[in-house]
Amino acid sequence: MKIIIHGGFFSESDQSHEVKVAKQDSLKSIVKKAFHYLETHSAAETAVFAVKLLEDDELYNAGTGSQIQSDGKIRMSASLMNGDTQKFSGVINIQNVKNPVEIAEFLMKEDDRVLGDQGAKNYATKNGFPDYSTETAQRRREFEEKSKNGGKGTVGCVAFDKRGKIAAATSTGGKGFELEGRISDSATVAGNFANKFCGVSCTGVGEDIVSNATAAKIVIRVTDGMSLAEAFDKTFAELKEIDGFAGAIAIDHLGNIQHRDSHPTMVFASFDGQQFEVFE
Fold first, then answer.
1. Over the stretch 194-232, which tens digit does the pLDDT of each residue have?
2. What are the sequence ranges of the domains in the chain?
3. 3-class state of residue 266 by DSSP
4. Residue 46 annotated as binding?
5. Which CDD domains does this chain map to (predicted)?
6. Which residue in 154, 170, 188, 214 is the catalytic one?
7. Does domain 2-70+150-278 have CATH number 3.20.20.300?
8. Active site residue 154
9. What interhelical angle do 17-38 and 43-55 show, nearest 10?
10. What is the pLDDT of residues 4-60, one digit of tens each?
11. Any binding-site annotation on 249?
12. Cα-based angle 239, 209, 22 (whole degrees, multiple of 5)
């Protein structure tokens, strides 16, 4: 059993040392809780559990604390990919729900598994998910000051359970101040993808991740016989060709863990029951 999570990026130039320490502590606490959850739950259930904890932490740009778009509204996206069943579900630009990843999980039972905007919200309401404002005072101040600090804060998780099954989940509040209706990578296979060989969750600039098809490329390359490290090398080399801004976390079917960013510093933490690794 292994688990790795991410919480977007940290920049020394626009975030304090105190914020860095707070994120390190938060990620370490969440990854440990998620690992213990993984002991009695599936990879897919655990990926959702971990992402919910990240969505509920105002340090990150997902769920509570999501960025505000140019029209003053918060629109969130999230997805879940079950590598065992090969099913993908997600919500795009949903508003006023506490945990978008929960709606993505709920959609797994539907034939239509990716919903957008008002349709996603209507589905959530119909299925008992209450209205919830994810706006925080800090995000409102940033919006009013037109500050983009901390915008690259998508969260995600890849889990590898005791049966060797893999799942990935990703959630974002956008990049902040974007055009109304802009769609990120988080509810696409470019940003979140898994099969029985590998699972990947991405963070960064969604347009770059989609242009590079980052998560899908890594998983397909591992499926076709590359090692996880080789798949990362090739995919991030291609990302560099377009000066792409992205980070990715992954676990393969052998239990190998990989993380990489094209621009420092992606915040992440992993745990295998004995050893932690946390970004520095």
1. 999 999 999 999 999 999 999 999 999 999 999 999 999
2. 2-70+150-278
3. strand
4. no
5. Asparaginase_2_like_3
6. 154
7. no
8. yes
9. 150
10. 999 999 987 778 999 999 999 999 999 999 999 999 999 999 999 999 999 999 999
11. no
12. 105
